[in-house]
Model the fold of this input.
Amino acid sequence: MEPLVIPLSSAASCAGREAAMPVESLICADTATRVSSVLNRDVKQFGKKHMFDASEETCWNSDQGSSQWVTLDFPGTVRISQLHIQFQGGFSSRLCTLEGCRAGEEPVKISDLYPEDTNAMQRFQVEETELDKLKITFENSTDFFGRIVVYHLGVLGQRL
Done:
């Protein structure tokens, strides 16, 4: 069987059509992250790095408090379009507020997300926003003491 060859003229005629831009993970080794707290200050066992290590065995576990947060400083400007998050059931957030800004600007609210109290990976479409810094605030924890447990956090979109 001969391979299918598409003439260059046919491929070029497709270039003018609007196509959805592919999304990719925006969190990389050069993304600076900060968290509001770590349970018992035990960063080795419960530190922020565990949200990004793709292991089902590790997690970020916040300490007690009324609201917890994560900030992501990207190495360059990005356009976010999705947020993926996996909580531990019983330690999730009923309300997540996303704020973002470009370098040197004040953060502005992007959206409110309403996750379920479940162990499952949750995916949220967010308003496409160009930014250099993203803050995710976890409010209204399902835990009586306000603790948040995140096994996976992903921000998807395009690098600009």
Observations:
- Confidence is low (pLDDT under 50) at residues 1-18.
- Residues 8-14 form the longest helix (7 residues).
- The two ends are 41 Å apart (CA to CA).
